[in-house]
Design brief:
The structure is a homodimer. By secondary structure, the first copy, chain A, is an alpha+beta fold. Chain A folds into two domains: 141 residues, Sandwich (Jelly Rolls); 73 residues, Arc Repressor Mutant, subunit A, CATH 1.10.10. Helices cover 45% and strands 23% of the residues of chain A. A four-stranded antiparallel beta sheet of chain A has the order 1-8-3-6. In chain A, strand 10 and strand 11 form a beta hairpin. Chain A is elongated, with a radius of gyration of 19 Å. The structure holds a DNA duplex.
Chain lengths: 233, 233
DNA sequence: TACCATATTTGATCTGGATCAACCTCCGAC
DNA sequence: GTCGGAGGTTGATCCAGATCAAATATGGTA
């Protein structure tokens, strides 16, 4: 694994407070790999053998049942995914696929569990990570149950715009994925965007500009108990 | 606290593997209390000062935004709730209220966090509990996004019927709560019940009997990645 | 550059589930 | 018992969002 990647991983809150020997051991068992776009990394129902860390690219977590599919999350670098299944040693509840060519580190789940037992700093970080994951899912469920489609889109855009300059920001993924994540069809998303034009949102292709944040906030009523702050830098 | 209650708590997977001194210390800081029905125990947005354990009665976890409300879960004895907020030392994302007169133990969150650091058995159990909570929320979200109202009700009934005899089982809560939990209105729930009569479900007041499990399963297509097994005895 | 495949938008229509309005039914208090 | 109020059901209607169909845009590739 590249030295630089190692350092990026070391900086994650999950690994930041490990002792160096424990971290070294964990990395020793891990290996990184570059995957092409649209590759299925994980299929729901399989045993959780690896904790995954996305270093470059992007990964979609999705679920399906019968002939229906839904996007549960998009994981962007640098972040881990499917920690819960690894800790429980249980089958994955979601599938994962690369959206772009991606560099991903695979850490054997057994080693993660071993590190948990041996390194108190890592144990604490694991709990914090899982608890935060839990809380973000609570937010997601609240969002789905309490807001309508237009409100969900507005809230998402406000969240994304936190780190945007005057020239707005670019949607980090295809609109059909965003639609699925927000629990609507692509057609509905398109119409929701159009409806938000009257509430301070300007859109041009993938670039979004919030021209009137106050108006959008008035419509959406953002709420720290529903909308998690972005923690991408 | 009553000796019997202490023992019930000790049997929970969360506390089962603690050392006795650590458990004693945790219980020393805790106190139990009986609350009347319909009392708000926790309001969303407040600081998470206590881990709660329901010993008797039932507690609803719900969320609200603007003038809308939704039931997120019903917690039945013996079980804990809001562990994630306690571990993160963050504001509750959900409110909680008693549905019946309930006996509840309150354990100061600081002591829970201290026990986590001191007792490896408890640390492991905490992670398992959080990971399982995470997974059950993933299932809830998948359920909401992938199934329609009738399918959600059918899946819920099949899950509940696992431990039921020939005379069926009694719904553990009011139908309007069940409706809200399943993401629909009481009217829609009522109609969904009626629609399921053609698929092997007989209902009389609060008592439900699955007269033709095969027919219901054919409609609902239960799936271990969507429907969590009940672990009430 | 031209072409093709896929994403997106737009329009028309449909429908699951919400809403509104009665009405019923159960149960606890008196 | 009966009265009152909340929960539950039923019917009528509405509407947000899905579906279906077709036209455009976009991006990657030869």
């Amino acid at each position: 694994m590249r030295e630089e990647d190692r350092n990026d991983i070391r900086k994650l809150t999950l690994f930041r407070n490990m002792t160096s020997p424990a971290f070294d051991e964990l990395m020793h068992a891990a290996y990184d790999q570059v995957f092409p776009a649209q590759l299925e990394l994980v299929r729901q129902g399989e045993a959780a053998n690896f904790l995954h860390v996305v270093l470059e690219g992007a990964v979609e977590l999705y679920a399906n049942w019968q002939d229906r599919d839904t996007t549960m999350a998009v994981v962007q670098p640098v972040a881990t995914f499917i920690l819960a299944a690894c800790m429980r040693d249980a089958p994955y509840l979601m599938s994962a696929r690369t959206l772009q060519r991606s560099r991903i580190v695979l850490i054997p789940a057994v080693d993660v569990r071993a590190a948990f037992s041996r390194d108190p700093g890592f144990a604490l970080a694991t709990v914090q990570e899982l608890a935060e994951g839990y809380r973000s899912l609570v937010r997601h469920a609240k969002n789905l149950k309490l807001r309508n489609a237009r409100e969900r889109l507005g809230a998402y855009l406000l969240q994304r715009s936190d780190y945007a300059g005057a020239q707005g920001f670019v949607l980090p993924q295809e609109k059909r994925l965003l639609a699925s994540y927000l629990g609507m069809t692509p057609e509905s998303l398109s119409r929701a965007f159009k409806a938000l034009r009257d509430h301070g949102v300007h859109i041009d292709g993938m670039r979004v500009t919030i021209t009137d944040p106050a108006a959008l906030k008035a419509l959406v009523q953002t709420d720290s108990l529903l909308d998690s702050p972005l923690n991408i830098p």
